[in-house]
Amino acid sequence: MEKKNIVVLTGAGISAESGIPTFRDANGLWEGHDVMEVASIEGWHKKPALVQEFYNLRRKAALVAQANAAHYALARLESAYQVSIVTQNVDLLHEQAGSSHIVHLHGRLDQAKSSIDDRLVYPVVGDEIKMGDLCEKGSQLRPNIVWFGEAVPAIEEAISLVSNADILIIVGTSLQVYPAAGLKEFAPSHCQTFLIDKKIPSDRALRNIQCFEESATIAVPKLVEQLLY
C-alpha cells in the first residue's frame, strides 16, 4: 500500500526549545536589534557589516544547538509515512534529528551566497562569513537567508507538497508571517490538520483544525505516537 503523505510546517517555536531564540520578542526586537535593520534587504544595503555579524552570531548559536524531542519524533514518522518538512527555520535541527526531506523556506545558516547572483550558493567554512569573502563573480558573500523584501524561492515547492497532503501538522508558528502562513489554505479538503503551539490564536479559520496548546516537545511526540499506533 502506498504510504500517506504527511507535510509538517515548522516555525521558530520548535527551535526555541533547543535554545535558539525566536524571531522577535514582544517589542518587535530580535536580539536587541530592529528586525528590519538585520533581516531585510534594505538593512543589508545600508549596513552589510552589521547584518553579517548578526548572522555570524546566529550561526555560532545554531551550531551548538541540539535537536529536541519534537524534531526526533517527526523523523520517526518516516517509518510509516511519506514525510516532508517545510520549515521557516534556518537551523539544521531537522537534519540533525534524521528527517530526510526538508524544504527550507527562509534559507539556511550553513550556506553563503553571492550578493549579485542567487544561483551561486556555497557552504560556510567554519562559522563565519567575513566582509571581503567574495563569490566567483567578485561580489561580497552574504548569508543564504530570505529577508524581508525578497522573494521566497521555495514557496512553489511548499505549495505543491501541501496540495498533496493527507495529513498537515503545523508546529511552533503563530501563522503570522506570509507567505508561509497562507500555506495551510492549499491543503485538500480530505486533509487532516493539526496545530501545535504554546499560544494558539483565537481565529475562526482554525475551526476545522485540531489544536494542541502545548510546547512542541510535549505535544509532537504524543501526536506522533497517535499517528504511528
Automatic annotation (TrEMBL):
Its main location: cytoplasm. NAD(+) binds at residues 11-30, 88-91, 172-174, 216. PROSITE patterns: SIRTUIN. Keywords: Cytoplasm, NAD, Transferase. It is found in: Cytoplasm. GO terms for cellular component: cytoplasm. InterPro entries: DHS-like_NAD/FAD-binding_dom, NAD-dep_sirtuin_deacylases, Sirtuin, Sirtuin_cat_small_dom_sf, Sirtuin_class_III, Ssirtuin_cat_dom. Residues 1-229 form the Deacetylase sirtuin-type domain. GO terms for molecular function: histone deacetylase activity, NAD-dependent; NAD+ binding; protein-malonyllysine demalonylase activity; protein-succinyllysine desuccinylase activity. Substrate binds at Y55, R58. It catalyses: N(6)-acetyl-L-lysyl-[protein] + NAD(+) + H2O = 2''-O-acetyl-ADP-D-ribose + nicotinamide + L-lysyl-[protein]; N(6)-succinyl-L-lysyl-[protein] + NAD(+) + H2O = 2''-O-succinyl-ADP-D-ribose + nicotinamide + L-lysyl-[protein]. Belongs to the sirtuin family. Class III subfamily. This is NAD-dependent protein deacylase. It comes from Sphingobacterium siyangense. The lineage of its organism: Bacteria, Pseudomonadati, Bacteroidota, Sphingobacteriia, Sphingobacteriales.
